[in-house]
Write a structure and sequence with these properties.
heterodimer; A: about 625 residues; alpha+beta; 3 domains; seven-stranded antiparallel sheet; five-stranded mixed sheet; B: about 850 residues; PH-domain like; globular; PH-like_dom_sf (chain B); Myotubularin-like_Pase_dom (chain B); CG14411 (chain B); Myotubularin (chain B)
C-alpha cells in the first residue's frame, strides 16, 4: 500500500504499482549478482534466463518530475534498470525498470563537445508512452557500451539475436523441472482450444460445420487451421471463394448466438476492382451464410472503413460488395480510419500526456488528438453489430481491407458485448487467442518486436485501441467484467515486453513454425498463476446480475481518456481510487456472515435431528 | 403488463379518486376544462381524458392537443457515419411505437396528448390509445415528485422558449419539427413579446435544469377554422406566465395549503434563531465571537436607520467590537456586509470569515477595511489572519452565467445532427465553456482556505458583496474540514447557514423574477452560483465515494428543487424579503428540506449513499491513512459522534449562554479532505446534465447499477444479521444459496399468496400513466425467481444510468428492488457500525 505523502514516495510506489512488469511470481538468484557492484544491495528480482549485459555506476537519469538523479544503470538481456543513489535516507530511491521490448528507439544526444549539464547521453523512446533520458559523463566513455548493449538487446531481430521469450522459457523449464510448479490447469497455451470453443457456440450443428481444410495453412496462410463454415459450402467451393477475397481471407465464423443462430463472420474485402468484378461463388457463399440463420432473410455487411476509403480501395483491386450483385445484402460503412491515422492519433496522445500535462489546455489537447473520436467509432461500430445480431437476429459479415485490424477490433468487441463468457478472465484470453492471434492480426509488424525500424509504417496501436475500447466498456459496466483494469494494463505491458510468446509472430502458421507453444511461455500462464490481483471485486457475486448483452454508449460525452494507462508515468497524476475498499469490506463481511449462517444451519439441523432421534428412541416402546 | 394496460383505458373518475400523493383537490378541475370547449377531430376524441392533476390554487390557463417528442432520440441509423449508437432505442420511445400514426420513423419518438399551461406548470398528459407503458410498474422506482408528473415542469424552470414556424400546408407538424435541426426557423421567443406572429408548428422549451422539451402541434383542418392556433395559444400563455415580473405572481402565493412540518425530528439546523448560531459557535469552540440579532439592536429597529443596512436577522461578529461600532463600520462595505463569522476549526478555533468589499465610494480609503480586519485578527488565538481576495481568484457572477449558458447549449442539442456535431469536438467545446475550469478554481480556493484553517490561521474570504462566491468557497471549505456537513442533515444545515441565512440572492441568481432592464441585457443578474457549488460538491463525492452520506441523486434533486416555487428555501434574496412575503402576502413557508413533502420514502432512500459509514471505526481510519488524498495527522482523536450538533433542535426557546459550555471544539480534526482540483481530475456531472438525453443512457450500466450492487450487498448483510439474531433461517438472501450452491428452498404457501395479491393489486391511472399504489413489499418477493431456479436468483434489474431520473426499462422487477432498498437502508440508518474492527479482521 502506498502512503502517497510526497511526490518521491509516489514515484517509487507508482513504479511498483502501475508497472505490472515488475511482478514476477518466481525470482531467482537474488544474492549471486551482488559481487558486481556495491550499489546492488537490493537488486531487482532476476527472471529465469535473465543475464547482465552491462552495468554503469555513474549515470544520471534525467527524471522529468524530480529532475536529474544520479545512480546505477543495469542492462540485462530483458530489462533496463536504474536505481538512484539515496542522497538522504528518508528519500526512497528513483527506480526505472523497463523491459527492453518496450523500447522503440534509442538515440545518442550530445557529442564529445557538448557543454551544459546532462547534455551528453542517450534518449530512449518507448512504446508505452514514455521517454527516458540518461546523461553520461563524456570522460568516462560509458555511453558507448550502454548504447550498443541496448541496441543489441532491445532489437535482437535486427542484430540476428533471439527474443528474450525463448531464453526465459528454456531457463524456466530447467528451474521448474526441479520444482515442478507449473500446473497443467495454468498452462496458457491450453486456454484456447478451437474445437471446444466452437462446441460452446453450438458448432457443428445443422447449418455449420468445423473444418480443418487449412490445417497446413495452404489455403490461407494468415488464417487458423480450424474454421467454422456453412455446411452447404464444400471444401472445393471454399477454395474457390478464397480466391475472390483479399489474401484469401474468406468469410469464416467468429461467433454464433446459440439461441437465434444469428452469426458474426469475418473476412477481407472482395477483389472487386475498378471494373466491378463479380464472383458467383462468393455471392452464393454469402447467401449460404444468410440462409444458415433462419431468423432473417437479410445479411448485413459491416465494412469497417469510411466509405471513401472503401471506394478508393477499388483502384488497388479491392472494394466492397455491391448491393446489386449480392442478393438481400445490406452494406454499412463504419467510418473507422486506417492504421496510419491511428498511429498519428496515439502520437498526439503521447504529446498531450507525457511527460506533463497542461491543465489549462488539457481538454482541448485531448480533443485534438481525435483518439476518443476513434474509440467512439469502434464502440459505435460494435454496438451496431450487436444491434443487428441481437435485436434484429440478422447475421453480420465484418470486413475492412485485409480483415486483420479493424475487423478484429469489431468482431472481438462485439463478441465481448454479446457473450458474457468473454468477460471472464478465461473467456477474454480465449477471445484474444481466437479473434486476434489465430485470425492473424500481425502483432509482429504492428508492434515491431525486437526490430529497430521504429518508423516502420506497419506499426500501429490497433490492439491497444481494442484494449482501450474494452476498458471503456468496463468503465460503463463496472460489474460486468471478471477482470479489472490491472489485467488490461498487464496485457498492454506484455504486448511489448517480449517476455512471453503470446504476442510474438504475425500468424498462427508462423507461431506453429516457430514452435512457440513449446519454446516460450504464454502470458496467460503468467496471469492465471496469480489470478487474484486481476479480479474485479464487484464481479463474482453479481455474475447473474450482469446484463447478458451490453450496449455501451458511444459518445465522446461518455467515452473518457484512459488516464490510468496513458498518464501513469506522471506520479502527480495518479487517478483517485474509486471506493472499492468499502465494497471489499462489505464483501468480506458478507462472506463472514455466510460462514456464521452455515454454522447456525448446522446447529439447527443437529438440534432437530437430535430431537428426531429422541422421539425415535422413545417410539419403539409402543 | 402490456395486456393489463391495453384493457384498461385511463378513466378520469378513477383518476380523481387517486389520493395517495396529494390532498384531495378542492374544486374539481373539470369545471375549468368545460369552459374550454374542444372541437376535436375524430382521432382526438379522447383528449379530454388526459387531464393534468391540479393543486390547490392551480388553474389551467391554456390547453391544446400536441405531440411531445423526445429531444434527440432516436438517432437515425443507416447513414455511413458510425455515429452515436442507434440501438439506444430506449423503453421510452419504443413504448410509444404503437401509438399515433403509422409513418414509423417520425412517430417513433412522439407521444400524442394534451399540453396544458397552468399558473404553476407546463403539463403534458399523454393519451395512450393502445398499450400503456409496459414498464409502468418499473416506473415506480424512478423519481416521482408529488407535485409534478414525469412530463411536467414548473414554469419557474423554463429558461428559454423557441418557436418553430410552420413550413407550409403540406408538411405535417412533426415533419416541421424534425426539420428544425437544420433549418434556421427556430426562433427565440422574447419574454417581452406580447404578440406572436405567424403560425407555430412546434415549441422547444429549454429548462434551467437542462431539460429540453419539444412539442409539435397538429395542423388544423380547414373545417376547424373556428379553433385557434394551438401553438400560438400555448406560446402566448407561456410568455404571459413563465416570466413573472413580480415575485408575488409566483404560484407559491396562490398555493395557500397549510404546511405541517415534519422537520422537527430531524437534525437540520435552520440558523433562523440566535440559539442556532450560538450552538454552532459552541460546536466549533469559537469563544471570541458573539451573535447579534437585528431585533435586539435599536438602530436596526428604527425605520429610518434600518434602511441603510441590508443585514440578515442574525449574524456573528467579533466580541471585541460592540454593535454600534460594527454597524458604523459596515456602512463602508457593499451590502453592509462587514466581517461575518461562519465557522471555526481546530483547537485554537481559527475562524472562517466572510467579508464584502468596500463600497466603491470609500474604496480609496481602506482604513475601514483595515479596522475590520484588525478586529477579526484579534479573535484569532495566534493573532494570525489570511485574506483571500476571491474576486481576483474566481470567476465573476457573469462569468459563471456565461459558462453555464455554453454548457446548457452542449447539453440541449436541438437535433441529432447538432448532437453529432458537438460530439465530434466535444472536449474542445467543453473546454470553451470554462465550466470545469471554474469548478476547478473553486475547489482550489476552498482547499487553500481549508489548509489555512488547518494551519490554525484565520481566513477571511472577501468578495464584492460577500454573498455569491463567498457562499461557494465558505461552504466548500466547511465540507472539506467537517465530517458533520457531509451528512444529509449537516449538509442541509450548511446550505441553510451559508446560503439561506447569510442571504445568497437566490431570486435574482435563479431568475425567479423576470427583470427587464432596458439598459442591461435581460436577466443580467441571473447566474447559477448555487449549481456551481453543487457541481463542486459532486466532484467531491466522486473523489471520496464513502465520505458523504448523500448521493449524487440528492444533489441533482436539490438543484431541481430550486425551481419549485412551493418551497421557499431558494425563492428569496434575503430574509427580510421572505418576512415581507409572509407578513404582507400570507405566504406559506415550506422548507425544501422537508423532503417528504415532495417525495415518498422510496425516493428518499436514493438520497443515502450505500458506501457511507455513519461512524468510522479505528480500523477504517487506518485504511484512511493509506488513501492518497487524505493525510491524517490529527493530534486529537475524533469524538465518537457528531451527535452534539445534530441533536440541537431548532425549536428550542431557551437562550443558550455560551459561557456555560466548554470552549473546546467538538469537530474531529482528522477527517478533513484534500481534493484533487485540476481539470484533469474533474468530470462532467452526467446525471445532472445529461439525464434528459436518452442517447447517452447506458442501460444497465453506470453508477446507479453499481450503487444497486452495493445496496444489494448491504441488504444481504442485513438479512443475514437478522437471521443470526433471530436464530432462524427463513429470510436468507439469495446470495447465500448462490454461495453454498444450493437451490433456494420452497417458499411457503402464505408468502406466495401474498405475492399473488401483490400482482392482482389494482393499477391506478394518473396522467395516463399506470401507477401502482405504494405499499411496502412483502417480505419475500423472489418467489418467481425461485420458481425459475437458481439461475434467476440474482438477476438484478437493469437501471438507466441516470437512475432515478432516466426513463424506465421494460420488464423490471421493482418489488425485488424495494426489498433491497428497504433492507439495505436498515443498515444505512443504523448508527451502530456494522463493520467494526473485530468483524473484519
Amino acid at each position: 500500500m502506498e502512503t502517497g505523502a510526497n511526490i518521491a514516495d509516489k514515484l517509487a510506489s507508482k513504479t511498483a504499482s502501475s508497472n505490472s512488469l515488475d511482478s514476477s511470481s518466481k525470482s531467482s538468484s537474488l544474492g549471486s549478482k551482488q559481487e558486481n557492484g556495491v550499489l546492488r544491495d537490493t537488486p531487482f528480482a532476476y527472471l529465469d534466463g535473465e543475464e547482465d549485459q552491462d552495468q554503469k555506476n555513474d549515470v544520471t537519469y534525467v527524471c522529468p518530475y524530480r529532475g536529474p538523479v544520479f545512480g546505477a544503470l543495469t542492462i540485462t538481456n530483458y530489462r533496463l534498470y536504474f536505481r538512484s543513489l539515496p542522497l538522504r535516507d528518508q528519500d526512497p530511491p528513483v527506480v526505472v525498470d523497463v523491459p527492453l521490448g518496450v523500447i522503440a528507439r534509442v538515440e545518442k544526444i550530445g557529442g564529445a563537445t557538448s557543454r551544459g549539464e546532462n547534455s551528453y547521453g542517450i534518449e530512449i523512446f518507448c512504446k508505452d508512452m514514455r521517454n527516458l533520458r540518461f546523461a553520461h559523463k563524456q570522460q568516462n566513455h560509458s555511453r558507448r557500451t550502454v548504447f550498443e548493449k541496448l541496441q543489441a538487446n532491445a532489437f535482437p531481430l535486427s542484430y540476428s539475436g533471439k527474443l528474450f521469450a525463448f531464453a526465459h522459457a528454456s531457463a524456466a523449464v530447467q528451474s521448474s523441472a526441479a520444482s515442478a510448479t507449473v500446473s497443467a490447469s495454468w498452462d496458457g497455451w491450453a486456454v484456447y482450444e478451437p474445437l471446444a470453443e466452437l462446441r460452446r457456440l453450438g458448432v457443428p450443428n445443422d447449418m455449420w460445420r468445423a473444418t480443418k481444410l487449412n490445417e497446413s495453412y495452404g489455403i490461407c496462410d494468415s488464417y487458423p487451421a480450424v474454421w467454422a463454415v456453412p455446411k452447404a459450402a464444400s471444401d472445393d467451393f471454399l477454395r474457390r471463394v478464397a480466391q475472390f477475397r483479399s489474401r484469401c481471407r474468406l468469410p469464416v465464423l467468429s461467433w454464433m448466438n446459440p439461441r437465434t443462430q444469428a452469426t458474426i463472420t469475418r473476412c477481407s474485402q472482395p477483389l472487386v476492382g475498378v471494373s466491378g468484378k463479380r464472383n458467383a461463388d462468393d455471392e452464393t457463399y454469402l447467401s449460404y451464410i444468410m440462409e444458415a440463420n433462419a431468423q432473417s432473410d437479410k445479411l448485413t455487411i459491416m465494412d469497417a472503413r469510411p466509405s471513401a476509403n472503401a471506394i478508393a480501395n477499388k483502384a488497388k483491386g479491392g472494394g466492397y460488395e455491391s448491393e446489386d450483385a449480392y442478393k438481400n445484402v445490406e452494406i454499412n460503412f463504419l467510418d473507422i480510419h486506417n492504421i496510419h491515422v491511428m498511429r498519428e492519433s496515439l502520437r498526439k496522445v503521447k504529446e498531450a500526456c507525457y511527460p506533463t500535462t497542461d491543465d489549462s489546455k488539457w481538454q482541448t489537447a485531448i480533443d485534438s488528438t481525435l483518439w476518443l473520436k476513434h474509440i467512439r467509432c469502434i464502440l459505435a461500430g460494435a454496438v451496431r453489430i450487436v444491434d443487428k445480431v441481437e435485436t434484429m437476429s440478422t447475421s453480420v459479415v465484418v470486413h475492412c481491407s485485409d480483415g486483420w485490424d479493424r475487423t478484429a477490433q469489431l468482431t472481438a468487441l462485439s463478441m465481448l458485448l454479446l457473450d458474457p463468457h468473454y468477460r471472464t478472465v478465461r473467456g477474454f484470453e480465449v477471445l484474444i487467442e481466437k479473434e486476434w492471434l489465430s485470425f492473424g492480426h500481425k502483432f509482429q509488424q504492428r508492434i515491431g518486436h525486437g526490430d529497430n525500424k521504429h518508423s516502420d509504417a506497419d506499426r500501429s496501436p490497433v490492439f491497444l485501441q481494442f484494449i482501450d475500447s474494452v476498458w471503456q466498456v468496463s468503465q460503463q459496466f463496472t460489474h460486468a467484467f471478471e477482470f479489472n483494469e490491472h489485467f488490461l494494463i498487464t496485457i498492454v505491458d506484455h504486448l511489448y515486453s517480449c517476455r512471453f510468446g503470446t504476442f510474438l509472430c504475425n500468424t498462427e502458421a508462423e507461431r506453429v513454425a516457430e514452435d512457440l507453444k513449446h519454446k516460450t511461455i504464454s502470458l496467460w500462464t503468467h496471469i492465471n498463476s496469480s489470478l487474484d490481483q486481476y479480479l474485479n471485486p464487484l464481479f463474482p457475486s453479481f455474475t447473474r446480475g450482469a446484463e447478458p448483452v451490453l450496449r455501451p454508449c458511444a459518445s465522446v460525452r461518455i467515452v473518457r481518456l484512459w488516464k490510468g494507462l496513458y498518464c501513469r508515468w506522471n506520479p502527480g497524476l495518479c487517478a483517485p481510487q474509486h471506493g472499492c475498499q468499502r465494497t471489499r469490506e462489505l464483501l468480506s463481511k458478507q462472506d463472514q456472515l455466510f460462514k456464521h449462517v452455515n454454522e447456525l444451519r448446522l446447529k439447527l439441523t443437529n438440534r432437530s435431528s437430535n430431537m428426531q432421534t429422541t422421539t425415535r428412541l422413545a417410539s419403539p416402546m409402543h | 403488463m402490456m395486456a393489463t394496460g391495453s384493457s384498461e383505458m385511463p378513466d378520469h373518475r378513477k383518476r380523481n379518486t387517486f389520493t395517495s400523493y396529494v390532498a384531495p383537490i378542492p374544486g374539481d378541475s373539470r369545471a375549468t376544462m368545460d369552459t374550454n370547449e374542444w372541437c376535436l377531430p375524430s382521432d382526438l376524441r379522447d383528449v379530454h381524458l388526459a387531464k393534468p392533476r391540479l393543486l390547490a390554487g392551480e388553474q389551467i390557463v391554456a390547453s391544446a392537443p400536441a405531440y411531445m417528442y423526445s429531444p434527440i432520440a432516436p438517432m437515425d441509423s443507416g447513414s455511413g457515419s458510425g455515429s452515436a449508437n442507434p440501438s439506444q432505442s430506449n423503453g421510452y420511445n419504443s413504448n410509444n411505437q404503437s401509438s399515433s400514426s403509422s409513418s414509423s420513423n417520425s412517430s417513433r419518438a412522439s407521444t400524442f396528448g394534451l399540453l396544458s399551461v397552468t399558473n404553476f406548470k407546463l403539463a403534458f398528459v399523454p393519451l395512450h390509445t393502445r398499450g400503456l407503458t409496459p414498464s409502468a410498474a418499473a416506473s415506480d422506482l424512478y423519481q416521482e415528485n408529488v407535485y409534478l408528473g414525469r412530463n411536467e415542469i414548473t414554469l419557474n424552470n423554463i429558461d428559454q422558449i423557441y418557436t418553430v414556424a410552420e413550413l407550409g400546408r403540406a408538411a405535417s407538424a412533426l415533419q416541421a419539427a424534425r426539420m428544425t435541426g437544420s433549418s434556421s426557423r427556430r426562433k427565440k421567443l422574447e419574454p417581452t413579446r406580447q404578440h406572436i406572429n405567424g403560425r407555430i408548428a412546434a415549441l422547444h422549451i429549454v429548462c434551467k435544469n437542462f431539460r429540453l422539451l419539444k412539442f409539435a402541434f397538429q395542423q388544423q383542418d380547414l373545417k376547424l377554422s373556428g379553433a385557434s392556433d394551438y401553438g400560438k395559444l400555448i406560446a402566448s400563455a407561456l410568455v404571459r406566465f413563465a416570466y413573472p415580473t413580480r415575485h408575488d405572481l409566483s404560484f407559491a402565493y396562490a398555493h395557500n395549503e397549510p404546511y405541517y412540518s415534519t422537520l422537527n425530528s430531524s437534525g437540520v439546523c435552520m440558523f433562523a434563531s440566535k440559539n442556532d448560531w450560538t450552538r454552532e459557535l459552541i460546536r466549533c469552540g469559537a469563544s471570541e465571537w458573539q451573535v447579534i440579532s437585528a431585533t435586539s439592536v435599536p438602530q436596526l429597529q428604527n425605520r429610518l436607520q434600518a434602511g441603510k443596512y441590508t443585514l440578515p436577522p442574525h449574524f456573528v461578529i467579533p466580541k471585541s467590537c460592540d454593535v454600534e461600532r460594527f454597524l458604523q463600520l459596515s456602512l463602508a462595505f457593499c451590502d453592509s456586509r462587514a466581517a461575518f463569522w461562519v465557522y471555526s476549526y481546530g483547537n485554537s478555533a481559527a475562524s472562517l470569515v466572510r467579508l464584502a468589499e468596500l463600497q466603491p465610494a470609500s474604496q480609496q480609503d481602506s482604513k475601514m477595511e483595515n479596522i475590520m480586519l484588525e478586529l477579526v485578527r484579534k479573535c484569532d488565538e495566534r493573532k494570525q489572519l489570511r485574506l483571500l481576495h476571491l474576486t481576483d481568484e474566481l470567476p465573476s457572477v457573469q462569468d459563471v452565467q456565461r459558462a453555464h449558458r455554453k454548457l446548457q447549449r452542449l447539453c440541449t442539442p436541438e437535433s441529432p445532427a447538432q448532437f453529432m456535431l458537438q460530439d465530434d469536438k466535444f472536449l474542445a467545446l467543453l473546454d470553451k465553456t470554462n465550466w470545469l475550469m471554474y469548478v476547478s478554481l473553486c475547489l482550489r480556493q476552498a482547499n487553500v482556505a481549508a489548509s489555512t484553517l488547518r494551519a490554525n490561521i484565520s481566513c477571511v474570504l472577501q468578495e464584492s458583496n460577500g454573498r455569491d462566491l463567498c457562499c461557494v468557497i465558505s461552504s466548500l471549505t466547511q465540507l472539506l474540514l467537517d465530517p458533520h456537513f457531509r451528512t444529509i442533515d449537516g449538509f442541509q444545515s450548511l446550505v441553510q447557514k451559508d446560503w439561506v441565512a447569510l442571504e445568497h440572492p437566490f431570486q435574482r441568481r435563479l431568475a425567479h423574477v423576470y427583470t427587464c432592464n432596458s439598459e442591461q441585457s435581460p436577466c443580467s443578474e441571473q447566474s447559477p452560483v448555487f449549481l456551481l457549488f453543487l457541481d463542486c460538491v459532486w466532484q467531491l463525492t466522486q473523489q471520496f465515494p464513502d465520505e458523504f452520506e448523500f448521493t449524487q441523486t440528492y444533489l441533482t434533486t436539490l438543484w431541481d428543487a430550486c425551481f419549485m416555487p412551493i418551497f421557499d428555501t431558494f425563492q428569496f434574496d434575503s430574509q427580510a424579503q421572505r418576512a415581507r412575503a409572509v407578513n404582507d402576502c400570507k405566504l406559506v413557508l415550506r422548507p425544501v428540506w422537508d423532503w417528504s413533502e415532495q417525495f415518498c420514502d422510496k425516493d428518499k432512500l436514493f438520497f443515502t449513499n450505500p458506501l457511507y459509514q455513519r461512524q468510522r471505526s479505528d480500523y477504517a481510519a487506518a485504511l484512511h491513512n493509506q488513501r492518497r488524498s487524505v493525510a491524517v495527522t490529527g493530534q486529537k482523536l475524533a469524538k465518537p459522534t457528531s451527535a452534539t450538533s445534530s441533536s440541537a433542535s431548532p425549536a428550542s426557546r431557551y437562550t443558550i449562554n455560551p459561557q456555560l459550555f466548554a470552549t473546546q471544539t467538538t469537530v474531529p480534526q482528522d477527517r478533513y479532505l484534500q481534493p484533487a482540483h485540476r481539470i484533469f481530475d474533474l468530470a462532467v456531472w452526467q446525471q445532472c446534465y445529461y439525464r434528459w438525453l436518452p442517447v447517452l443512457d447506458i442501460r444497465g450500466g453506470g453508477q446507479p447499477q453499481l450503487e444497486l450492487c452495493q445496496r444489494l450487498l448491504l441488504s444481504n448483510i442485513a438479512k443475514m444479521q437478522r437471521c443470526l439474531e433471530l436464530q432462524s433461517l427463513d429470510d436468507l438472501p439469495d446470495a447465500y444459496y448462490e454461495a453454498v450452491g444450493e437451490p433456494r428452498p420452497y417458499i411457503n404457501h402464505n408468502q406466495q399468496q401474498q405475492q399473488q395479491q401483490h400482482e392482482e393489486e389494482i393499477a391506478e391511472y394518473v396522467d395516463g400513466v399506470e401507477r401502482r399504489r405504494k405499499s411496502m413489499p412483502c417480505a419475500n418477493s423472489s418467489s418467481a425467481a425461485a420458481a425459475n431456479g437458481l439461475s434467476a436468483a440474482l438477476q438484478l434489474s437493469s437501471l438507466s444510468s441516470f437512475f432515478p431520473f432516466g426513463s424506465p426499462i421494460a420488464g423490471d422487477a421493482p418489488h425485488e428492488l424495494y426489498d433491497i432498498l428497504s433492507t439495505s437502508s436498515e443498515l444505512l440508518l443504523d448508527t451502530s457500525s456494522i463493520l467494526d474492527k473485530s468483524s473484519i479482521m
